[in-house]
Amino acid sequence: MTDSTTPPRDGSAPVPPSAAPSPSEVRAERRRLVESIGALRRLLSKRRAFQVADQRRLQHEARQRKRVEAAHGGKLRRIEEERAVQEASLNHRIGALDGERERREGQALSVLRRQSVERALGSTYLNAREVNGIGEGLVRSLSAQGIRTAADFDDVSWGKAPNGKGSDVLYIHRTKGGKVHINGIGEHRGRPLLEWRRAALARAQARAPRTLPPDERHRITEIIEAERRRLRQELAEVPRTAETARKEAVRLHTEALGLLDSAASEAARLAAERRAEFDTMAEQVRDLQDRLSAHMEAYGDVGRRVRRAQKRALRPVAEVPQSLAGIPSPRTPGDAAPAAGLAKVTGRNGHRPVPGVKAHRAHPGWLIPVLYFGLTAVVGVGEMGGNTAHPYTMVASRLVALAAVAELLRLWLPRVRTRSAGPMPDGTGWQTSGVFLALTATGMFEDEQSDVFGAACVVSVLAAVLFLAGTVSRVAKTDDRTGESSAEST
Fold first, then answer.
1. Residues 443, 388 contacting (CB under 8 angstroms)
2. Model's pTM, two decimal places?
3. 470-487 core/surface letters (b: 16 or more CB in 10 A; e: else)
4. What does 383-429 look like in DSSP terms, one character per residue?
5. By CB distance 3.0 to 4.6 Å, which of 56, 151, 185, 341 could disulfide with 189?
6. Residue 313: is its pLDDT beyond 90?
7. Cβ atoms within 10 A of the Cβ of 10, count?
């Protein structure tokens, strides 16, 4: 402990002996400072989880914005597609109206001619003077069966008698359905009856009108023109309807973006407050460390118990490099969002992901040496082709292969995960190559069937050089922000 009369560093008057604190008070103050620093460090340890959560928030906002933009673009495309389909359909229907007029005129003329023929046939009554072989008695028999005019029947045919006996008889087919047999009307009377009906039909068709009346054509023209005007009105309404739908889509899109922006602004404000809290705690830690250093200089060592805690408390607080002072936000790819107080986070396996910066995952090709060393741990080296290796070599080679597998998996597995992604430590490839060549040289030394001793010595030297180079690279790779070695952190 230093003399209490020693003047302080700030040049003030020395503390008189009567005012110097007792050793118990010095130890209590020292413990209070150490415990305060430890409590703040524990709070600062939550900064990495906060940074990861904040980066996920930014990515989630970017995904939501992308979905909103995609939905808006799809809505606009569907509106344009529907507009094009409706316009094409209406133009086709308008172009087909000329053919529709001809079709309707032909249909109306067919109806008019059919009605005229039916009226003419209905007014042509059957009488004995016009049909050869048909007397008044047969005319009354036909009338009793509903056949009075040429419109009441349309054909005759032969068929079996109604009682199923005797030869075939002649049937008269009524227009309204059914057929009847009149006794006394056979082939000689049925043929003149059918010819009479055909002659009446020919006269009726010849007298039927062959053109539409002017008023009927005018009526059809008015119907077609009214349909044309209606379709043209619908065609003119299609762009207005599409524009209304587009404006509604734009309005909904603007509202959705407004909600996202307001939520993002509030979240960014809370995140900025949280970062400011972490910065304040980091400053408090530094102030307490300065006070602890001054206390140590003023009163010296206070015991072995506190010494180790002092060393941990005086570890430097991690800082963010100036190049990472701003992390690009996924919402604005070209701008850098303020990210004051972002800390360097050291992983358990020497991997230091920087919050807000997406790290590259370890390459899956590292599984190849893992599989090779795993196979070597099973079959050994120098034990194939009839060779028998020394027992020490058998055990040592398998242990080295197992150690290589364990080390590679320890380094590789955390670096392929999303939350702890990162490249393999520098020098790992050289170390892996050195172990591979060392096992190869061991197998060459144990080979009794060929003389490869010289080559085995060269491979052994090369393996040692590669392994040492990789080890030095891993040890010498120091993080500039904390001064800690990557190899030590592993």
1. no
2. 0.46
3. beebbeeeeeebbebebb
4. -STT----HHHHHHHHHHHHHHHHHHHHHHGGGGSSTT--PPPTTHH
5. 185
6. no
7. 6
